Amino acid sequence: MKVAEYLAKAQAQWARFNAWVQLDSQHLTPGQQLAVHYFSVAVILFFAQLLFGLIAATQFIFPGFLYGWLDFSVNRMVHINAMVVWMLYGFIGCIYWLLEDESGTDIVGLKLGRLAFWLLTGAVTLVVLVYLLVQIGPGKDSSLWLINEGREYIEAPRWADIGIVVVMLIFFYNVVATFSKGRWSGIAGVLTLDLVALAGLYVAGMFYMVNITHDQYWWWWVIHLWVEATWEVLVGVIMAWSLMKLLGV
Length: 249
Ligand code: HEM
What we know:
It contains eight helices and no strands. By secondary structure, the protein is mostly helical.
């Protein structure tokens, strides 16, 4: 292809991209507006992650810093939990962003999806407040249900676990019902299978085990197969859609 032709094509592509990326809320679809809610919380959680990481790092250098007020164990936990949760918010936001476009129809059950966002955000806020306000206590059944499950990366208490599963089911319903109403595609199929695995693995981290070795084995599956399997496929789905849009194929 001649250079002039190539430049003309690139220019046309750029104009299409600019027309597509009109990011004020007037130009966003209802699904994309919900996505922006998810992205906003993801950004807040990312900064919370940095803040608590910085406090934890300071405590490496000055071990007495905030000791008895905000201990290293709590800061490290909030740092890592914030990371897991902002990434999930980012993924969910991306899927709501592309769902209408990929399915060719409106999102089914969008009101329920909006309710799920507020439920999840309320639960995350409450869980973090309890982490900060109840830093030490007895390891009873009630602690596991209400305060902290004690499993690294997924310390959220059991009530929040159940809430997260409910929210994920609503998200799953939004995705599958929307594709079923509109059109299925390769992206839709991979995404649906991935969401089954994503939700299924989370449930694996909700069993109580007496033996700590067995217990660690299960939560290891949750966090590692999340990150190393289901999250990567999810990112693949998001990248596939984005590349198709950017390249206009
Ligand atoms: C200002 C930036 C950051 C600071 C100061 C910071 C600080 C820390 C500290 C002090 C720990 C605890 C280490 C330990 O227990 O020995 C930690 C752990 C961790 N951080 Fe960060 N962090 C930052 C950014 C990030 C980012 C951006 C991510 C990922 C997106 C991240 C992911 C992790 C993970 C996964 C762990 C756990 C590592 C393990 O268990 O081995 N951190 N961080």
